[in-house]
Every structure is written in structure tokens, then in C-alpha cells.
């Protein structure tokens, strides 16, 4: 995953809040990590962002959109998986276009 907060927020926005903890547990975060982050970040959205950021730090190069999609599909949230991938493609496309214009 690129080092871009907008990408993490895109994932936060597309995973149903009622399934969020299951999602990050399946990604590999421990209950201890979840509780610590919830204590440090009172607002749900901030906590969700930090959980994803921690996962990304722990996983390094293995933290990919494909991995997120795979977990969402295992949770039978393929609609969320599609929405995340589509949103990320849309996010990346203006940057790609501007790069090509400079070549």
C-alpha cells in the first residue's frame, strides 16, 4: 500500500463498522493492539485509521490492496472489496494521467 492516508481512509469508509473488528483481526492485529488503539483514539474513525496504519507497519510490503480484498472476500463482503478497489483505482487515475502528461 502506498504511504497515503487517503487510501487508508478509503478502506475505513467501505468496511461496515459492525464488521470492523473482525476485519482487522483477520488482517492479523491482536485484541491487545485493538484495545490499546481504542484507548488512545476515542473517535472510532481515528481508531480505525490507526489500526490499519499499524497493520501496514507490521506487514511492510505484504500490506497490499489484494490482501485487504482477500480478507473482505473471506468475510463474504465482496461488494466492499469491489468498492475499495474501484475507489483506489479512481484515486490513482488522476495522478497517473498527470504523470503521462509530463512525459
TrEMBL record:
GO-annotated cellular components: membrane raft; receptor complex
> In this protein, which residues make up the domain named Death?
5-88
The organism named in the record is: Corvus splendens (House crow)
Protein name according to UniProt:
TNF receptor 1
| Domain of life per record | Eukaryota
GO MF annotation list? tumor necrosis factor binding; tumor necrosis factor receptor activity
Q: Which UniProt keywords apply?
A: Receptor
Looking up Pfam families in the UniProt record yields: Death
> What PANTHER family would the database entry show?
TUMOR NECROSIS FACTOR RECEPTOR SUPERFAMILY MEMBER 1A
Q: Which GO terms describe its biological process?
A: inflammatory response
Amino acid at each position: 500500500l502506498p504511504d497515503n492516508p487517503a487510501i487508508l481512509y478509503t478502506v475505513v469508509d467501505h468496511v461496515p463498522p459492525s464488521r470492523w473488528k473482525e476485519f482487522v483481526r483477520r488482517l492479523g492485529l491482536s485484541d491487545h493492539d485493538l484495545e490499546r488503539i481504542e484507548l488512545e483514539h476515542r473517535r472510532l474513525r481515528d481508531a480505525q485509521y490507526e489500526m490499519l496504519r499499524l497493520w501496514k507497519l507490521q506487514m511492510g510490503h505484504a500490506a497490499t490492496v489484494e490482501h485487504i480484498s482477500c480478507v473482505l472476500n473471506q468475510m463474504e463482503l465482496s461488494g466492499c472489496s469491489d468498492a475499495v478497489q474501484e475507489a483506489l483505482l479512481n484515486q490513482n487515475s488522476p495522478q497517473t494521467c498527470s504523470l503521462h502528461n509530463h512525459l
